[in-house]
Amino acid sequence: MNAIEARGVGVRIGAATILDGIDLAVAPGTLLGLLGPNGAGKTTLLEVMAGLRRADRGGVRLGDQALAWLDPMERARRIGYLEQGAVCHWPLSVERTVSLGRLPHRGAWGGTSSADAPAIEAAMVACDVAHLRRRDVTTLSGGERARVLFARCLAGHPEALLADEPVAGLDPAHQIRCLELLAARAAAGVAVVVVMHDLALALRFCDRICLLSAGRVAAIATPAELLSGDVIETVYGIELARHSRGGRPYAMPWSLRERNLP
């Protein structure tokens, strides 16, 4: 059974079709990269899968249940959502901010459980923010704040983790660390969907990639399968420099295709 699945999802905003009949199933234990040019519909699809935006057509299932039928608190327990460029408005400590990821797990009276403190500590250590625990989150750099919000998401131990551009603004070492953490969550049985623009990192870390183009699925395949053809180059209008290391193929954008040059 798939952990999370979009079926025939369509979204319109005004006269514009943002998503057009998207089918996407993500099994437990999979790290799936959601890629595509600007305006392809990646963030919109992630919002629909998180239950934050209603589809005009189709719907999303979480396990064997329709997402729309779930109680909001249950949905928050089962789905972790990391928003792109999220802002911290309140002057909370880092530790308190990360602890907010445990709120959906608290009972009717809001009490803490024995699982909360270890989950919060483990998430802070994993995201390299434990040393910042007493800092006001509004005083942090953009990259530090991004890691704190990622830790908040991890602390909730969701069965599906949806992250929108989690490596944006991070230095190379923390980009790799972030993707290694997402891969580790997938290896532990979580269904992970991550929106990315960095092709090289996506091809390096993701188990499967869903490539969107103009609101439709252009391809869903493993990195090796994608690199065996030219769909990436066609969708982006670029030429790739292709390589392999340890028998694993990877690539990086190298140049625009001639037709895209001014």
From TrEMBL:
Keyword Metal-binding: no
Protein name (database record): Iron complex transport system ATP-binding protein
One of the record's GO molecular function terms: ATP binding
Stretches assigned to the ABC transporter domain: 4-239
SMART domains from the UniProt entry: AAA (SM00382)
PROSITE patterns: ABC_TRANSPORTER_1 (PS00211), ABC_TRANSPORTER_2 (PS50893)
Keyword Transport among UniProt keywords: yes
Entries under Pfam families matching the protein: ABC_tran
Keywords: ATP-binding, Nucleotide-binding, Translocase, Transport
Its job: Part of the ABC transporter complex HmuTUV involved in hemin import. Responsible for energy coupling to the transport system.
Lineage: Bacteria, Pseudomonadati, Pseudomonadota, Alphaproteobacteria, Rhodospirillales
Gene3D superfamilies noted in UniProt: P-loop containing nucleotide triphosphate hydrolases (3.40.50.300)
